[in-house]
Fold this protein.
Amino acid sequence: MATPSPNPHLSMSINGGATVSAGWAATQPRRRRTVDHSSRSCLLRPSYGSTRGFGTRRIAVRSASQKNSSPPLMTTEQEAEDEVVLESPAHFRIYKSGKIDRLNRPPVLPAGLDEATGVTSKDVVLDADTGVSVRLFLPKLQEPSKKLPVVVFFHGGAFFIESAGSETYHNYVNSLAAAAGVLVVSVDYRLAPEHPLPAGYDDSWAALQWAASAQDGWIAEHGDTARLFVAGDSAGANIAHEMLVRAAASGGGPRGGGAAAPVEIEGEPEGGAAITAAMWNYACPGAAAGADDPRLNPLAAGGPVLEELACERMLVCAGGKDVLAARNRAYYDAVAASAWRGSAAWLESEGEGHVFFLGNSECENAKQLMDRIVAFIADKIQGRKRTCGRRSPSQTYLIISPFAIEPAGGQNAFCGSIHQFAMASETEPDAVVFEAPAHFRIYKSGKMDRLHRPPCLPAGVDEATGVASKDVVIDAGTGLSVRLYLPKIQEPSKKLPVLVFFHGGGFLIESADSSTYHNYVNPLAAAAGVVVVSVDYRLAPEHPLPAAYDDSWAGLLWAASAQDGWLAEHGDVSRLFIAGDSAGGNIVHDMLLRAASNGGPRIEGALLLHPWFGGSTVLEGEPPAAAALTGMIWCYACPGASGGADDPRMNPLAPGAPALEKLACERMLVAAGQTDGLAARDRAYYDAVAASPWRGTATWVESEGEGHVFFLEKPECDKAKQLMDRVVEFISAGSPA
């Protein structure tokens, strides 16, 4: 699938808010003080998962791990250590060595007095050895003698990014302190992968104990630790749950046994679990149960019993369109249905996604959420009432939004950005069932909103290249059209090769006339000296597959027949090539099979640029999240596929797929980006073709350090120019001397 900038194409990456501080010093043992925890719990979109169909929200994976699919490139130990294994474009990149690049760092704001709210903040280092610190927020004192509730806050960011001092969280917590009239202790815990879990949990626990002990002057003078709350968003809400479990265990309560077995959760997008699991594996590599570790999946078998949660009241919040909403609701329902003696409240923000209140704090839903949190702390909202028992008061407001990071605009999901897949309602035909933020939204009714539309450029003469283009409708009944490109004619009597091109976009978005593809195909025609027929096939879900395959086949037959004047006069259809990127590369494969079985035109060469293939079994070096996302998108592009992602059109290597030896071309070039989540599958396709009895010649091209369809996003970079040179060389290789 293609992904230009601001990329409407699907690619996969893990995402989130932005980054934060570099890792702290190595973990050191610390003595812990046992304290009486009075806390209340508010989980704002917590981060929970499982191996059974649970997902993360936007995941823009680029939550996806990106592994190098071409071992030959790894010639030294140092190069192997520098292999990228997990990437969220514009957010972070994790290497095999354990090193992480935090690519997007929101400004770190200094502590001090905020004139607008009257809130004063300061930083306190809790452990000089580990560097763990907290940022305290003290609201303007209306009654100096009145003690304020204390909120211990844990920031989100999938355990990889963000900080208590970042602009994202400073601005949110500052506003919370002012609105709720509370003293906030915002914990700056150590981050993975430099400091794998349980480091983040241990730091948070130490900070909670420190806050409860009122060692700091602000807390001692102004804080009421008898009214202690814990709160967090996304991964921070996950931490809040862990704090409740630890508080119960430290008080002598049982830590395990009797928990519910993992169950499928209605409304949770299939495949999201792989994204969650991929990130969890790097955040907590020692977790024996993977995504069913009770810290990530509180409903997993053998997890701590929910009735022991050490708080009196709980508020669980979710966005109606957050992919985590189903898991968050299941957590709330399980807590409320347990023998826990507290009261729980649920708040869902209609039409909103994961941690929307951080990026859009002035919208009405964000204001309503803040009002509910303030009311919760003030004890003015009613949850499911129970008789409070032996627990010390603990009010936790959980901002439930696990491992979700907002996707960077136009980032490629297969490379590692997590895309949002919204919740579906069984009763509402307009319920959103699948969403890629800023790209598209699919409704249960089958309707689709294409949220990002690159400009459509008119055909004509391009002065810079001398290439002329025009649009031709070849089927008035379906509306199928093509855009032809004719390079500047140097020798009028010389016939030019003909290249039929199929654009990418996951079969769901893009077009032949978009700026993305016009600006790629136009230079291709000029550089290679070919007549290009770019096919504008129909898109899913309005026109499910095989519509796009059928249209592409019709476009190929039309081009080979040379019915158009440009083709008849200037094209040499005996030198016919087909090419495509991402989903278009997938179409190329289907065209080769159709040409073999239907007696189609002779095809000299096929170019598959970062082709989109998938399968139910994850290949070595393939990010699990990439495979999962492929399966989800394929379900909407081709709902009638009985084999799911193992439909031979999506997985040419599946059992029962047409024999590769029948591919109807003489030469083939398969290209991939080294850090593309599809690279392993593309390499497997190339290897299978090369090893088959097919009598053609195959070439593999891998662009080191580049992601999915990078050449569309940055055509002027050296790697894009090198790839264009290889494409031109491939086409010209068969030219007569």
The chain has a mean pLDDT of 81. The chain has three domains: 120-400, 422-452, 468-732.
